[in-house]
Amino acid sequence: MSSENQLPLFELGEIELNQPSKNLIPTDGKLPIPPGTYDNLSELSQHCRDCQRCQLAQTRQHVVISRGNPNAKIMIIGEAPGQNEDETGLPFVGRAGQLLDKILDSVKFNREEDIYICNIIKCRPPNNRVPTPEEINACRPYLLEQIRLVNPQIILFAGATAVRGLTGDKRGITKIRGTWMEWEGRLCMAIFHPSYLLRNPSREKGTPKWLMWQDIQEIRRKYDELCT
Ligand code: URA
Q1: CATH number of the CATH domain containing 66
Q2: Which of 16, 111, 114, 118 stands 20 to 30 A from 217 (CA)?
Q3: Which domain range does residue 128 map to?
């Protein structure tokens, strides 16, 4: 084989090395994981469990990927795992999660059947600090793949970090909560994060808990209209 013929082969080899493949996760969080990388959620979960794309890999106990029904029509996206979630590997199992359950129960959503729950990032930030933009960006391709594979009809963002992390919308949660918006062709709504509701327990008219009650009823109404 002449050297002219060999050159393109070497170039091809290099291109392949730079492309994330199913068996190779880019450990640099800035490198992309292209849409369509995963055929299913279990392939994605396997990669997430081995992920080293950001510094949180060093301090986590478990990678927290999801819970609920992968075929659910509603996806809830929270902020980040806390201590209970880090210990168990499941999102929203602590006090905030229990309140979220009650909110869902109140309009007869079954958390295991009707809902798929995940977070903007999959590893606990030390001391539950807010995730950094680098951590959010490193984890983002996994979340985008989860959304593609679950293909929910409705996405709920629990709290401002979730909205900002995915859509870039920097408006405050009190401004945008309760209104339907579109992101990437999907119907979405921001709701208060349940931890915020734990800190604001009043149920009086106009308070966060009261507003949450209005929002979950509207979500139930829309779900019945679109999904049943
Ligand atoms: N808060 C979140 O945003 N996500 C969890 O999984 C738990 C608490």
Answers
A1: 3.40.470.10
A2: 118
A3: 36-227
